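Run log, item B.
One chain of 228 residues. Sequence copied directly from the ordering sheet:
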Amino acid sequence: MKKAVILLSGGLDSATCLALAKKEGFSTYALSFHYGQRHNSEIDAARAIAKSLGAVEHIISEIDLSAFGGSALTDEIDVPKDRDASILSDKIPVTYVPARNTIFLSFALAYAEVLDANDIFIGVNALDYSGYPDCRSEYIASFQTMANLATKSGVEGDGNLIIHTPLINMNKAEIIQLGIKMGVDYGLTRSCYDPFENGNPCGHCDACQLRLKGFEEAGLNDPLNYAY
């Protein structure tokens, strides 16, 4: 079986990506990050998802992006709540973590080289992306070009490393419906930017609003408990 590295955040998009990679016949290797984010619930979720979906290996890498701050997820900055859905992608929000996907993809690239794998999956989305610049197709294409120029496998191998973004043109409802068909347990996933101390989602941040809207449009109930 071909090997693939799957960036697994613990959210519903990355869980769906893991399920898709497995369905496509890949031997899946999950990679998550404890990057100095304000909560650990997503790491616990990633562990549960990797086990549930049969990842061959799950690595949790330590990166302290809180040393730089600059984001509501890694610094003492309030997470925006109850923003109108019509303005979610008007500009880059304070929940954007500077260069996060570039850093994560670079780690995934190193992991893929060690595994002798040509495939990396990331659950970026250009429709419900909350204004993040590193979730766009042109960014992914540029990183893929760079990856094939800057690695031993790219220079001495077949130069065919692929960054898979199977969800990039899907909305949240479509992603959820796809995942349900593949048996993804979304009760294991976590999306909230500012969860309660017990790990339950706040229900008011951008991520929660997009998630709840997705389940509503899919005609399904979100299995998570939004109460403190």
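Observations after the first pass:
- Residues 50 and 58 are 7 Å apart (CA to CA).
- The chain has seven helices and five strands.
Flagged for discussion on Thursday.
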